[in-house]
Amino acid sequence: MAQTSSTPNGQDVEALHQSTQPHSTETKEASDVDISTSSHNTDDDELTYSNAPKLPLFRLFWYFFYNFGLFAWGGPVAQIAMIKEQIVTKEKWITHARFQRVFAVYQILPGPEAAELCMFFGCLSAGRLGGIVAGLAFILPGFVLMLVASYLYTLAGLENKYFNASFRALQPIVSAMIFKATHKIADHSIIDQKTKKVDPFLIIAAICTAINSTLRLNIFISLGLYGIIYMFIARRLWIPAGILFILQYVGYALYAIFRGVPSPVSLALGIAKTPSLINLFVLGLVAGSLSFGGAYTAIPFVQVEAVLKGGWLPQRVFIDCIAISNVLPAPLVIFATFVGFQGGNTDGGLSKAFAGAVVITLGMFFPCFLFTIAGHSLLEKLVHNKFLASFFDGLCGAVIGVIAVISFQILKSSIQGTERDFHAKPVELAIAKAAQSGIAAVIFTIALAVLYKFTNKWAVIVLVATGAVAGQFLFLDELSGH
């Protein structure tokens, strides 16, 4: 077979599949042999196929900055779907099969998966230096915007009625982005790569992982467990698979009886009792090292250290920072920039606030850069490892369950508002905020319809801008009337 890595950018990967099919002029016996070997070769080719263009570093930076960094709205789920749609589906740098395997492997790495995927594709295009450039290009817009948002928040806060009105309209729009992205990612995550059909066992893995998430069962236990269970299922070892499936709930029941329902407070290490620069860096470094599966696992750790243990960040401010990070075009772990800014401001005023934002961000992203860039070759070997193939397929199916739960949680908070809204004083203001739920639900429905109707990346920018303006008309009267 001809070397595929030198094919022009955008060439349809179907040519690769066609080249492995038996010729019609051959005998039936020869065709049968070719068919059996062709299927094996096609699977290998799909995991090694690379059509990544060799871009100079400046063009590579601009490619990821313009295509993904500026348009990374909607959180990690939407970002991953956007990267997959642009690079894999449209430009065909790699096959969908290889993307799913890479995505599954990166679930075991600390850090935001969207940034790691950009680094992976940067490495394919221009080596390890290209991976660093691609990662920085993806992160930079969100970091700058969060830095600005942190400063503005210090001056006004979310209690500013104009800011709050626009923010209230943007929340259901972001939720709609996440819902659409969940659908896009699930499209290929529950597909058996051999039969190209929906695998019911992967659907079960997604559903059970979603149930485990609501039970507060550690996400890493669920992902690893369903990866192993699917390895047994793929090899038709039904009894070990069934035993492991039952043991997870027996173990959870025993833990809940003797220790109580798992709580995020148990994650506290007490490493940031004061928000000094060194403590902020260590907080970011440890949180980044623990952020397997993305920001959603880093959030409770930072909350425990800064809010509960350290006590230097109010719970209300922490909730606000998570909300802001959800509406910015950035990896969700960029919430750490806000935490560092507020910590630095508490410790030494505005002059230290910007330094705090920078050091905690460096700490948060250092692990993912280290593992993704330095370990690129090893990760590629894991992607192509046949023994672990079914493990990663099962893991990728389980991830959909986690993403689905997160999507519903964000939808609930974006439409209903936070608990703080219902404790607002006077009572009339709390009632007014509760009444906004119907408007938020309508915004969510309209935004979801627009996202499915218009797939151009500029549609997201227009939608966000329209939502910010509409919020001034839809929510400002209720907020300013009391």
UniProtKB/TrEMBL annotation:
Gene Ontology CC: plasma membrane
Composition-biased stretches (Polar residues): 1-10
Q: Name one Pfam family in it.
A: Chromate_transp
Looking up InterPro entries in the UniProt record yields: Chr_Tranpt_l_chain, CHR_Transporter, Chromate_transpt
Q: Where in the cell is it found?
A: Cell membrane
Membrane-protein topology: Multi-pass membrane protein
What's in the keyword line of the UniProt record?
Cell membrane, Membrane, Transmembrane, Transmembrane helix
Q: What is its main location?
A: membrane
Q: Which GO terms describe its molecular function?
A: chromate transmembrane transporter activity
For the region Disordered, give the residue spans.
Answer: 1-45
Membrane-spanning ranges: 60-83, 129-153, 201-225, 237-258, 278-296, 317-341, 353-375, 387-410, 430-451, 458-476
Do you know which NCBIfam families this protein is assigned to? Answer: 2A51
Query: Into which family does the record put it?
Result: Belongs to the chromate ion transporter (CHR) (TC 2.A.51) family.
Could you identify this protein by its name?
A: Chromate transporter
Q: Which organism is it from?
A: Amniculicola lignicola CBS 123094
